[in-house]
Amino acid sequence: MAGTSAVPDALRALIDALLDGDHAAALAETRRLRQAGLPAETIVTAGLETAMSRLDDKCTVESFNLLEIMLVGRAVSAVVRELYPEGLPRDDRRGTLVVATLEGDVHDLGKNIVKMVLIGKGYRVVDLGRDCPIDTLVAATAREGARGVLISGLISTIVPQVRRVRTALRAHGLDAVWVVAGGAALKQFAAAELDVDYVAENAFDGARYIERRLEGEVP
Ligand code: B12
Questions:
Q1: Atom 29, ligand 1: residue with shortest CA distance
Q2: Which among 19, 44, 133, 161 is least buried, having the fewest CB atoms inside 10 angstroms?
């Protein structure tokens, strides 16, 4: 995640508002930044991700401040909806993608960003939510005719499940479906270690990979 030194000055007020859990102030600051011409991508990667990474010590196995984290989470969600409003035109010809956080992992802020970014780029995205069993993931992939499966993972305990996804897809004849992983717990691994096609650094890196994949630049 972005460290303090990488944060542009322009984003400090937004990060402070997010960390205060003040979603009205965060929204106002987001609108101001957009009007000033700051790209949504920068607001997400240098603003939202930085704010959340500063919550690290309030959300560990040893110490856990639920109320504070949830308030920040609510502010992050409000900013994401502002940046990527629902109801955007979508072009189903670009293909269908399935996105989920696997069973045992309830983190979904990153997954929601990935979904909105991809919808904004014109993909049809089927969101299976968080805490999703692999069987549900495979069934939805087949039912929806998805070309790719996107998995978000924030806790390390989820890694063995991620490694089972491709085998489960193949067992149902879905050999051509590619798998992309992302999120703090998964991006520490190489794609081969997780048995996935690609591990994304952030939502935009993932979207660029998908674009290259669909355009045939990646075999
Ligand atoms: C917010 C938060 C929570 C919230 C989640 C709210 C929600 N609705 O999501 C709550 C309070 C519920 C929570 C609970 C817990 N949490 Co927590 N949480 C966090 C925290 C502070 C921020 C995570 C976050 O939202 N980041 C912001 C988003 C925007 O970033 P992101 O997910 O990485 O997503 C970006 C990219 O990675 C990418 N991306 C993400 N997924 C994908 C997928 C694809 C396909 C692609 C292309 C891209 C992509 O797109 C996004 C934008 O670029 C992290 C700390 C951290 N530094 O990550 C701990 C953290 C993840 N939590 C942790 C822990 C331990 C827990 C608990 C076990 C605590 C407890 N004692 O119960 C529980 C887990 C419960 C469970 N079974 O899942 C640990 C995990 C440690 C580990 N390695 O396993 C962390 C790392 C904190 C720490 N330092 O210890 N948590």
A1: 110
A2: 133
Whether 53 lines ligand 1, by a CB cut-off of 6 Å, is yes
Residue of minimum CA distance from atom 26 in ligand 1: 52
CA 23 – CA 30 distance, rounded (Å): 10
Token reading at 157:
């305990």
Question: CA of 114: how far to CAs of 119, 158, 160, 194, 198, in Å?
Answer: 9, 18, 22, 19, 15
Rounded Cα–Cα distance for residues 50 and 165 (Å)? 30
For the Cβ of 18 lying below 6 angstroms from any atom of ligand 1, the answer is no
Query: Per residue in 35-87, pLDDT tens?
Result: 999 998 899 888 888 887 787 777 676 776 778 878 888 898 899 889 887 64
pTM for the predicted model, two decimal places: 0.86
Tell me the CA–centroid distance for residue 127 and ligand 1, in Å: 18
Structure tokens at 95: 């293909």
Q: What is the pLDDT of residues 21-36, one digit of tens each?
A: 999 999 999 999 999 9
> What whole-number distance in Å separates Cα of residue 65 and Cα of residue 167?
37
Q: Do domains 4-83 and 92-214 have the same CATH topology?
A: no
pLDDT of residue 12 exceeding 70: yes
How do the domains of the chain map onto residue ranges? Answer: 4-83, 92-214
Give the count of alpha carbons within 13 A of 25, CB side only: 14
Fold observed for domain 92-214: Rossmann fold (3.40.50)
**Residue 100, both tokens:** 């989920």
Backbone angles phi, psi at 183, to 5 degrees: 100, 155
